[in-house]
Amino acid sequence: MAAEAGFTLVEMLVVLAILAVTAGIAGASMSRGGPERLVRATAERLAADLARTRIDAIRAGDRRDLVFDGESRAWQRAGARPVPLPAGVTLDLTTAREARAASPAGGRSTIAFLPDGRSTGGRIDIRMGETRRSLTVEWLTGVVRASAP
Q: Which family does the record claim for this protein (predicted)?
């Protein structure tokens, strides 16, 4: 009698177990990347809006502000829609007291850019859980620098 070609039940169970372990490892590595990707994307978007605000101030020859509204959890530059913070992401701002007092934004936090490219400066920490990135706006040059501690 000839042996029949095919797989035994034990062989099939071993293959399924290997697939389950592989899928579990892949799923765990993807979920860890979630907060990191979200914080990085938020930092990149905010850095781009800060740079655009600086360019707008230089082109217009007038002061331009990027306004942070804690109540609505969003930031906004002049002439643009507010950008909401993703759920779970927080911003910690350190800005110049003088910028807040002189701001037409009614006491909300601002980083202002002047026609010569300078700014009021500031530091923005973007966090989600243990993941953090920082943006620093240099007051003398208005240049935005990113760092990931």
A: Belongs to the GSP H family.
DSSP annotation of 116 reads T
* Dihedral (CA of 58, 60, 62, 65) sign: negative
Kindly report the CATH number that applies to the domain delimited by 35-147.
3.55.40.10
Task: Tell which phi-psi region holds residue 133, choosing left (phi > 0), alpha (psi between -120 and 50) or beta.
Answer: beta
Q: For 24-52, what is each residue's pLDDT tens digit?
A: 776 665 555 689 999 999 999 999 999 99
DSSP E strand stretches across 55-121? 64-69, 74-77, 83-84, 90-95, 109-113
Cα 115 from Cα 54, distance rounded (Å) = 8
Q: Is the pTM of this model over 0.90?
A: no
